[in-house]
């Protein structure tokens, strides 16, 4: 292999914390784990995404649990991390003198049988070119540190048992207990291998062979290869699109069909700031992007299932909320934990207060999701069509109210233009969809509201002084979310108001390397609001619609370089350094990668057509 992204071991951590970008993720549609390039698992919730983390040292280097495997001597050691092709199986290699000395293969068992739960981490430890002294340390944390446990030795490992939680470690490496943690050092001969497995909910340990790690590895590899092979995407950026797709697939919680926005909680959007949120929930507004991206990849069946699973949750709840729990394990009520936070970024929050806000765009977003499914030939039954009508009735009543916007401001509600825009799109797209399907509906009524909202936005939302649509009625500032205006066909991309808005966003909110602030408004939170990465991918889409195709491609190429060594993205990036910030990996950013790649691939294919005489035909239009 080529050692792509080799990093010096001593550069992986800063102040005792592995940087967010220095992580890979393994997942199995129940949970996920973050694995640092130094061989440390420093975040893993078991048995589910929404469960308290067993390992959480990424949020507190002292109090948090962790599970590390690395060479005892790391002098002059470099590290490479990569995925086995078309899988979420992660390999970490320690390199010295140009040779791999130690390799760790990590995975969470995955299977097509969604009722089978494997709350296990399997770690294959292999030496390569020489004998290596290997250091292993494992310390779990129960219920955020509030639940004590006792440790008992077994023939092949140890069991950690608390009043409500149990956790075991088993290995063919002789393990020692030091205080309340497993800690051992072993000299492994060259070209040898050992397994280490941690198991949640176990009270009795079997021999290491009984966990069938090689079989689980083969099954897991086959599962991911089979899933990957169903993608219909062919074209430029295929490896980046597939990595984003595999990441998204890993974030689905199979028992309910819902997807977490990210598998982590409280990773800071800026170091030392308080913008630290729990993202282990499903956001309604993400639904349309998920369905659109899955369908583009050819996973129409999964897109359909996701929408109907989402609708079932909404139906049970009796109303549309901003966010939903994936399984009711984790309360939406926000709590602050007694932890230091990643690199000292407090507070550490679980739960999410945004669930109590009025965010009007969520109603339009679910209509857009149904519209997206219809566009790719998904099944829209009478139940969904009735839901569309009921949702538009609600929108007709609330679209004129102030809300908290897509950005979930915790300040006084305002009349945000983006919220009105998505409400308009809901009425407009419902009309198009209903007529396409041959459904009956109050189309005149819906057209009345579509026209009324559009007129309201143009009259109150366009600020002639700044030649741009404003963030909210009466504001002299704009908002990067308004990049979606031409993408939703609110006005033609060459309309002077759209061009003025894009130019204003470019001038006020875009950095020279095409990162975007969301807004300039004081949101009342401590710490800088860094660049929201999805906006950069929206911008690429906007440039394509405005026939700035080469510029769009160049920018997209530069944005891909901002992903980490595994082509994974967080929610945000530091405006000055480009360092990944926020919860990781972030579903909506990867959705942005897929959509932008598809739009570029489509238009680049059109541009490369020949007219039969060997000449390129430039056919670039709105997509």
Describe this structure in words.
It contains 13 helices and 30 strands. With 623 residues, the chain is of the alpha+beta class. Strand 15 and strand 16 form a beta hairpin. It is globular and about 75 Å long. The two termini are 39 Å apart. The model is unreliable at 610-623 (pLDDT under 50).
Helix content: 25-40%
What's the Cα radius of gyration? Answer: 25 Å
Which structural class matches the secondary elements? alpha+beta
Q: What is the CATH fold-level name of the largest domain?
A: Glycosyltransferase
Report the β-strand fraction as a percent range.
15-25%
Strand order of the largest sheet: 1-9-10-11-12-19-16-15-14
Q: Regarding CATH, which class of the largest domain? A: Mainly Alpha
CATH structural architecture of the largest domain: Alpha/alpha barrel
Q: Domain count, please report it.
A: 2
Low-confidence stretches: 610-623
Sheet with most strands: 9 strands, antiparallel
> Can you give the mean pLDDT?
92
Task: State the separation between the terminal residues, measured CA to CA.
Answer: 39 Å
Number of helices: 13
User: How would you name the oligomeric state of the polypeptide chains in this document?
Assistant: single chain
How many strands in all?
A: 30
Shape: globular
